[in-house]
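Example complex used in Figure S2.
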Amino acid sequence: MRDVAIIGVSQTKFGELWDKSFRDLIVEAGITAIEDANVEGDELDAMYVGNMSAGLFVKQEHIASLIADHSGLAPIPCARVEAACASGGLALRNGIMAVASGYHDMVISAGVEKMTDVVDPTPAIATASDQEWEAQQGVTFPSLYAMMARRHMYEYGTTREQLAMVSVINHKNGAKNPLAQFPMEISVDAVLNSSIVADPLRLLDCSPVSDGAAAVILCPAEDAKKYTDTPIYVKASAQASGTIALHDRKNLTTIDSTVHASRNAYKMAGLEPKNIDLVEVHDCFSINGLLAVEDLGFVEKGKGGIAIEEGMTEIDGDIPVNPSGGLKARGHPLGATGIAQAAEIVWQLRGEAGKRQVDGAQTGMTHNIGGTGGTAAVHIFSN
Amino acid sequence: MRDVAIIGVSQTKFGELWDKSFRDLIVEAGITAIEDANVEGDELDAMYVGNMSAGLFVKQEHIASLIADHSGLAPIPCARVEAACASGGLALRNGIMAVASGYHDMVISAGVEKMTDVVDPTPAIATASDQEWEAQQGVTFPSLYAMMARRHMYEYGTTREQLAMVSVINHKNGAKNPLAQFPMEISVDAVLNSSIVADPLRLLDCSPVSDGAAAVILCPAEDAKKYTDTPIYVKASAQASGTIALHDRKNLTTIDSTVHASRNAYKMAGLEPKNIDLVEVHDCFSINGLLAVEDLGFVEKGKGGIAIEEGMTEIDGDIPVNPSGGLKARGHPLGATGIAQAAEIVWQLRGEAGKRQVDGAQTGMTHNIGGTGGTAAVHIFSN
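Predicted assembly (766 residues):
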């Protein structure tokens, strides 16, 4: 198995991008990543693209071929991989395997979602849950995560204010990220007084509906210095499945797939949680940002709320979480998120993260979730 | 890069399976493949599933997680890969890479589509073409392939009867396949007198709308004999992209992605067309069955019609094509087709194909197309 490095990254601005189409977004991300890697488009051997539901959002399947056509990448092999909101993480992982296996030498792994071309994105988003047992019964994603939040509050005494702090810290960081959808600070009071969505979750506990794309360029680690002075190395690429349906779980306060994927990632990298300098976690709802710091092993189960309240996850805390602003403030174009997380870690490990730079960051992690944890992808990178 | 072998295969009956759900079909295929491989479910390390559009057909994305949940495969990594009707071929290829890379030791690559739960599958199928430039303008897949057929007739003198022979031979073979959707023979007259769909293509030139699933079990070649006396070895796994939109092509009578993928496959395997004993080609429409024998290099461009008329592709011909019955007679549940093709080749190379057995088959090929050739996956196997 060959070691793999990242030599280029990109992210488009995330937001409600009315003036950019699906194909505009992915081509913009691709070209920017290629330029960042100092390579030519015809040096690419293969493409993987993460996308949850172009079929429902823009009535387009076969998007890998669309992209190959529109960007002139054909005849190289192009594939879409999908695992709901973890699609980007899987595009990254399959790109890594394609290089590790020796099948391909230079791969672009990208992610894209165009969510604002439909009147109501809720039915499309709901297809990440169990359609027959959850979505058809009227359950939405805010309500699924609300049940997890309520149970965590009941079992561990987690407070409403602690949940709000997840969003507050994300926005504090996101305010320093020019590519974020909502680059402004918010207060705990603002979260607590925002509209109720699914009790106890309010509007400012929820990540937004977003358009956007991101990309990374991968090559064998041994070749990386040919292209860049600052390659970032993939130390671990792990993925795990959980139950898609919430009622199939033993408990609601742990996401098993996060636990499995992260433990496999630590083992693969030969590292422990204490060795991670920063992490991009999947805070699609505030409760998921809180569960992540527990399930990834940064704090004991049940202690996430207190740790966040005490500043552990701030940029200058013990384990900086989501310096990018996370899904909440950077935005969450579903298939692009896992790749945008990796781009942020690369910028941080290169020391290029500007006002949101984590000092001395050398090892970073990404955590990307599909649905309520039916899929988790965890990656570890170092400079 | 590790060599890879197939140690187990399965296919459900293809057809309008009103009494079986999406999840029933994929679990049936999975269990049957696991039994065929003489392994236990908990020996599997990862799953890849090819599916074109569960989002539009059954309102379910995140199907890899759904399957992991419903079949008890969690926590192993499960991923959906999609490239329209070539999704199965890509699930196979990504499973092969996962084993070749050393990331996983035993992988199940499966494919599934449940197409008959919607009133009209046409809008979903059309998302395999360019939505903005083709589908939205009213172009359907029969009409796209009809243009290719008409042009081939114009340029090379291919006759209506020669096209009909593609379907006739498929049905002659499919009549001997108990898992086929339409296991009965048809005549040239029946094709020529069937309803017009898109001139010159008629109903019996077109593959049907189908439900079904198929699966293969992969492991490192060096371990294969632990599980079976008749492992089938993967000699090549290649994929290429073409333009998704027909108007972007230099000509309509060659599918470039088939040419690129097959040439890469021959090179990888160190073989030439003359070394292939049988092939499963992607005859979604009769013209595509004809283009395939030309673009895969079995006959010169333009000579496909005459070669088929003269019996080259019959089971006892120079290059037996689609002993299974192909997409036309076996059926075409989009995401399952690429895997079902591999299952047929495995049965043939094991000598287990019953009344449709190709005598002395030692090397077989599969050819799986997405859209009108936006994607092609070509695999070569030997015993």
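The CA atoms of residues 255 and 373 of chain A lie 6 Å apart. Residues 141-156 of chain A form the longest helix (16 residues).
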